[in-house]
Amino acid sequence: VSTQSTGNEERGRNAVTALEAEGLKPVFEQLDVVSKESIDNFAAKIKEKFGGIDILCNNAGIAYNYDDTLSLVEKAELICATNLFGTINVTEKMLPVMRQGGSICQVASFGGRLRVCFPDKTIPSDNASCPFR
């Protein structure tokens, strides 16, 4: 059983429909990774419905366009709340629900690469010389 979760119910339902078209049988549960209440509710529902999890795939993440009207501080706060603290909070809450031998998959985006964040020529262009790869 695969659980599809997202803070946006419509996107979650659409993902479930697409997975069902592939012959899978996913279950949708809403999860807002910036809300500790939502994380608590999600963990409790998963434990109640399935008794635990075998794999936790953290794939939540947001980014903003350079021309977005939010201030840099507002963007940084929202990005960190979702991409960093949300991932940490979900992982901490789901670890007790994870079955023996379970796995965690952390998904990162291309946007996290230094070349994307700092496109000037001072960042090494090859991954081999980049200390943050």
Walk me through this protein's architecture.
There is one protein chain. This protein has helices at 9-21, 36-50, 72-94, 114-117; strands at residues 3-6, 27-30, 53-58, 98-106. The protein is globular. With 133 residues, the protein is an alpha/beta fold. The chain has a two-stranded parallel ribbon with strand order 1-2. Helix 2 runs parallel beside helix 3 (72-94). Strand 1, helix 1 (9-21) and strand 2 form a beta-alpha-beta unit. 41% of the residues lie in helices and 17% in strands.
Counting helices, strands and paired strands, the structural category is alpha/beta
Percent of residues in β-strands: 15-25%
Q: What is the helical fraction, as a range of percent?
A: 40-55%
Mean pLDDT: 80
Work out the helix count.
4
Strand order within the widest beta sheet: 1-2
Terminal CA distance: 34 Å
Largest sheet: 2 strands, parallel
